Amino acid sequence: xxxxxxxxxxxxxxxxxxxxxxxxxxxxxxxxxxxxxxxxxxxxxxxxxxxxxxxxxxxxxxxxxxxxxxxxxxxxxxxxxxxxxxxxxxxxxxxxxxxxxxxxxxxxxxxxxxxxxxxxxxxxxxxxxxxxxxxxxxxxxxxxxxxxxxxxxxxxxxxxxxxxxxxxxxxxxxxxxxxxxxxxxxxxxxxxxxxxxxxxxxxxxxxxxxxxxxxxxxxxxxxxxxxxxxxxxxxxxxxxxxxxxxxxxxxxxxxxxxxxxxxxxxxxxxxxxxxxxxxxxxxxxxxxxxxxxxxxxxxxxxxxxxxxxxxxxxxxxxxxxxxxxxxxxxxxxxx
Length: 335
What we know:
Elements (H helix, E strand, L loop, with lengths): L1 H22 L22 E20 L2 E24 L3 E10 L4 E8 L10 E26 L2 E25 L4 E4 L4 E22 L2 E22 L19 E23 L4 E23 L4 E24 L1
Antiparallel strand pairs: 1-2, 1-12, 2-3, 2-4, 3-5, 4-5, 5-6, 6-7, 6-8, 8-9, 9-10, 10-11, 11-12
């Protein structure tokens, strides 16, 4: 299918880019540019950082009928425990290769809210449901090349060219619903009723600022892109239920699950970060960091796959967005 082929091509390009940068620098490395601020006797200074923290934010998915919004689902990221690693290698004086990533390390629960507007989105919602959620998977990978643009005394400015990948997967269970503008209330059994996968790919440009005073090192960055892309997959489960083809929902009779696969292009991306480090030893730094990233809302195409084998294609009928932020504490060692 188009989505699968496109996804494989993009992953292949990412893998090729990753292998090229690693093979030409002998190492992966991190988003930190502390290697530019600390003197090292090594010919190729390297820093390695390990951190732990929490992730918060939310993802949104939309369904459109032309210019009208039919549905909006909001998935929480609520105090998700994460662990991260960052590595940086400096070579040829002004260049560094940086790699970073994090992954969730324990179970995380939250909430999902689903609003529907069957009378037009300029009117109050007609249907509403709320569900408990579990975040099954969440991770981020980032690789970039930094070039030292300016350095004087204890200040440096670097430019970045990089690539970032974010992935989230939720399952929603049980909950309740209010239909027909409040005239019908329904409680669901505590079973999985919706699953949602969301992922983004972002080539980006950025600037990193570093300053050092005595044993303190402060780093900040800004990154952005207008060329990110994303994919999403939503599966609604309806065990034992059938639907009338003439119903307002449009579900096919006899279908006990529906999977919606969405593709998005030219997503705007913005990321901001701040790191405060303290040198407890000559080569050991304790860090406190916060990072924020946002993928702005974008529309894309949707294909619906019904369990009876029927498929339907809808152009510009899907929407996606995401924002998240992490707060973490960690330690860096400089070789």
